[in-house]
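Action item from last meeting closed. Structure (348 res):
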């Protein structure tokens, strides 16, 4: 009997911190209709005539600030995670990392698992909160690759894990001691943003999403916001605050990394920082729980740019909580999810 395959999927990274490599990556990434869900012609014009030519040099400069001798942080942490999960699982399992965009691609990772003789494939998109732009696109690509193989093994795809105890504890485990030593005045949970139109598409009623200040305060299994990215972000923030014993009056949620002029979900991280500074807060801790691995959006956007903004606003210090990366608690949590999904009749 062959092993069970575990495919760990993350978003992706350029091959190098150069303008040419970043331009290629941006074209592949932003040409995905799930990422920019506009008319195909409008999307082509935006990506190829505006974003790729003008954004690539700036993004390459940003990548150069966080690139290590080992390579892209996202790929480095991803490989360490895959290797660690493989050790945790032991015999009977084969583990590979696949990127939705860039290398190692999902197709390459699946080929490696097939070469290992896997008789079943479990795919784990490493996006805690569900979004069509990330999770949906990764799942579609996995299914496309598998459909092209007539003898493909059975496939199981793990659901979102925004409030999974293993994920929450993994994030908290790496933050408890340094957070206590830092002595934060306030903790901000900064999630990746999405256009409002993509959030509204997950509401089957068309009457709940973003219609009130409290629409994301709770998630019920049968509710209209069960698949809402924004509601899942707030649920993650609540669970992480409990795990870290953070009082509600010293906790906030915001969204970063917006692109273009269409409305994106609020509040925006770069607009929340001045509001916190106006309150006289000095020591700010920021968590990025939409990411399981440190990357451009955490290390550069928050760790460099947001830190500089906070200093300009008069803040004393900004501490960026590390993502789970390949923390031992996270390795065990991912391995446990693979085992649960590999059990007969298991789900989640």
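Sequence:
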């Amino acid at each position: 009997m062959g092993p069970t395959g575990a495919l760990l999927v993350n978003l992706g990274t350029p091959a190098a911190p150069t303008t040419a490599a970043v331009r290629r990556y941006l074209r592949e990434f932003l040409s995905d209709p799930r990422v920019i869900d506009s008319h195909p012609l409008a999307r082509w014009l935006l990506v190829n005539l505006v974003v790729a030519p003008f954004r690539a040099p700036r993004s390459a400069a940003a990548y150069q600030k966080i690139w290590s001798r080992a390579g892209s942080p996202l790929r480095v942490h991803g490989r360490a995670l895959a290797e660690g999960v493989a050790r945790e699982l032991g015999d009977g399992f084969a583990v590979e990392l696949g990127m939705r965009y860039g290398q190692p691609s999902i197709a390459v990772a699946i080929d490696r698992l097939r070469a290992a003789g896997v008789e079943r494939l479990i795919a784990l998109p490493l996006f805690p909160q569900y979004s069509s732009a990330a999770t949906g696109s990764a799942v579609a690509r996995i299914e496309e690759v598998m459909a092209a193989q007539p003898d493909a093994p059975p496939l199981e795809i793990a659901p979102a894990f925004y409030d999974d105890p293993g994920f929450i504890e993994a994030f908290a485990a790496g933050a408890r001691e340094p957070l206590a030593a830092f002595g934060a005045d306030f903790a901000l949970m900064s999630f990746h943003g999405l256009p409002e139109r993509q959030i509204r598409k997950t509401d089957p009623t068309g009457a709940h999403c973003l219609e009130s200040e409290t629409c994301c305060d709770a998630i019920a299994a049968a509710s209209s916001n069960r698949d809402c990215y924004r509601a899942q972000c707030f649920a993650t923030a609540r669970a992480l605050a409990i795990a870290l014993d953070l009082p509600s009056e010293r906790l906030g949620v915001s969204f970063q990394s917006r692109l273009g002029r269409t409305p994106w979900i609020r509040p925006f991280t770069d607009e929340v920082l001045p509001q916190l500074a106006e309150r006289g807060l000095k020591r700010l801790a920021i968590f990025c729980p939409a990411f399981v691995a440190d990357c451009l959006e955490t290390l550069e956007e928050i760790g460099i740019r947001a830190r500089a903004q906070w200093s300009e606003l008069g803040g004393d210090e900004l501490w960026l909580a590390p993502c789970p990366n390949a923390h031992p608690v996270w390795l065990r949590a991912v391995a446990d999810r693979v085992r649960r999904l590999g059990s007969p009749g298991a789900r989640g």
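Note appended to the action item: The first helix runs from residue 19 to 30.
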